[in-house]
Every structure is written in structure tokens, then in C-alpha cells.
Amino acid sequence: MYQLLLQETAAPAQAAGGGILGMLLPFALMFAIFYFLLIRPQQKKQKDHQKMLDSLKENDIVATSSGIIGKIVTIKKDKDSVVLRVDEATNTKIEFQRHAIAGVVNKPSDKPSEAK
Fold first, then answer.
1. Banded pLDDT at 95 (limits 50, 70, 90)
2. Which is higher by pLDDT, 104 or 6?
3. What is residue 4's DSSP assignment?
4. Which of 1, 4, 15, 67 has the fewest beta carbons under 10 Å from its own?
5. Secondary structure of 90-110 in the HEC alphabet?
6. What DSSP assignment string belongs to 17-73?
7. Which long-range contacts (CB under 8 A, 24 or more apart) does 107-116 make?
8. Which residues contact 34 (CB under 8 A, 6 or more apart)?
9. Alpha-carbon distance 48 to 42, whole Å?
């Protein structure tokens, strides 16, 4: 009778161990979904933006995060900034932090375009 009592109390302990694994599995799946849908694409986007910032050079036409479009006149590595010419007629120049550059609008071509 004593052995029967021990066997009955051991069975619920084993079931509880399986229950913890069953509870953690949905959380692990949710984390995996968040990683592949949110975290990983954001890291890739940041890496691509940093690559674009590293490849900037003078005479590139860029757009800032505030929507200003201009041509890069000077890149100041010591200040981590760029100077943009925003108006050709008045030669207006504005200095921006490099991280404020949202993207390159178009790269200047080495060959002049042919008129058709």
C-alpha cells in the first residue's frame, strides 16, 4: 500500500515537468517570429544605411532625413559631417551630420548624357 501511494505521488511531478516545456515552447516560437520579422530586417536596414554613408563622396546628390536635397561639396571626417550645396544660383551651403543623410538621389555619371 505504501508503494502504491509513492507511485501515485510521483506521476504528477513528471506531468508538471512536461507542462513547463509546454509553456516555454510558445514563448520561444513568439521570440523566433519577432526575430525574423522585426529584429533581423531592422539590423539589415541599419547595415545597408551605414554602407551607404561610408560610400558617400563629393558631387553625390543626396536627400537628408528632413527632405533637403543637395550636392555634397565637402565631407568632414573629423566632425563626421557633410557640407551640401542646396542652391546653385546663390551658392547656399548647409552643414549636416552624416547620419542625417537618408539616401543618395542619384550618382553623377562620368559620361555626359546624350540628347536624343
1. very high
2. 104
3. H
4. 1
5. CCEEEEEEHHHEEEEEECCCC
6. HHHHHHHHHHHHHHHHHHIIIIIHHHHHHHHHHHHHHHT--TT-EEEETTS-EEEEE
7. 107/60, 107/61, 108/59, 108/60, 108/61
8. none
9. 10
Nine cell digits for residue 81: 559631417
Contact 91, 106 (CB under 8 A): no
Residue type, 111: K
**How high is the pLDDT of residue 19?**
81
Whole-number Å distance between alpha carbons of 69 and 85: 9
Q: Is 67 left (phi over 0), alpha (psi -120 to 50) or beta?
A: left
pLDDT in tens, 13-71: 454 456 888 889 999 999 999 999 999 999 999 999 999 999 999 999 999 999 999 99
